[in-house]
Every structure is written in structure tokens, then in C-alpha cells.
Design goal:
This protein is mostly helical and 124 residues long. It has a domain of 47 residues. The protein is built from six helices and no strands. It is flat, with a radius of gyration of 25 Å. The protein starts with 6 loop residues before the first helix and ends with a helix.
Length: 124
């Protein structure tokens, strides 16, 4: 029995497989990189590792001050989960949502609407 291989078809198939592999590898690397720099925990993970998103080390003085302030914050008595949720929604929401829309969303969710001082600070 003689095996006949069409080298042109073989090469085309190999290149398609190779291209598919490289494309998926690059997508995976991009997604992994994005997952390292996106999401609520990305900054905390980087701080724990002592490495900034660009791969450079975070200076020791900055890490020590951050940890000191976070220890103080961890010891602070909380006023309630809803208050903290609203505070986070406002603090982060202002970066992504227009004032009137954020205010409408707060009211719909039964939170206190934006306060004048918040509007002046974040949107002023």
C-alpha cells in the first residue's frame, strides 16, 4: 500500500491549524492580561503582589502607607451595609454613568438620591 500525500493540501491544512493556534493563543494572552487589569479585585491582587500593572514593583513606602491606612479603615465601625453600598455605587458610578441617569438609578433602587455636595464634588 502506497501513501500519497498532496503536499499542497497538507501545507495549507497545517498553516490553517497553525494560524488557528496562534490566533487562539494571542486571544488567550490578551484575555489573561485583561483579566489581570480589570475587575474589582485587580488592584487588590496587584497590591498584594507588590507589582503594578506594567510589571514594575510598587515602591515600599507606598505599600507601607497603603497598608497602614487600610488597617485603620478595617478597624472603623461601619454604619450599615446599605450605606456602604450606596457610597460605593456613587463613588464608582460617577466614573461610568451620567449624573441624571445615576440619580434615577439610585432612586429606583430605593437609595437616597445624589446629594448636592456629591454632585458638586463628582460632577462639578
Amino acid at each position: 500500500m502506497k501513501l500519497v500525500i498532496n503536499t499542497s493540501q497538507f501545507l495549507t491544512g497545517y498553516l490553517e491549524w497553525y494560524d488557528f493556534g496562534i490566533t487562539n493563543f494571542l486571544k488567550t494572552m490578551t484575555n489573561n492580561q485583561n483579566s489581570l487589569t480589570t475587575g474589582a479585585d485587580a488592584v487588590d491582587i496587584a497590591i498584594d503582589q507588590g507589582i503594578d500593572f506594567d510589571g514594575s514593583p510598587i515602591p515600599t513606602a507606598k505599600l507601607e502607607l497603603y497598608k497602614k491606612v487600610m488597617e485603620l479603615e478595617n478597624g472603623r465601625q461601619r454604619s450599615g451595609v446599605s450605606n456602604t453600598m450606596r457610597s460605593r455605587i456613587v463613588r464608582i458610578g460617577v466614573k461610568h454613568i451620567a449624573k441624571d441617569e445615576l440619580n434615577k438609578l439610585l432612586i429606583q433602587a430605593d437609595f437616597t438620591q445624589l446629594k448636592e455636595k456629591e454632585i458638586a464634588f463628582y460632577y462639578g
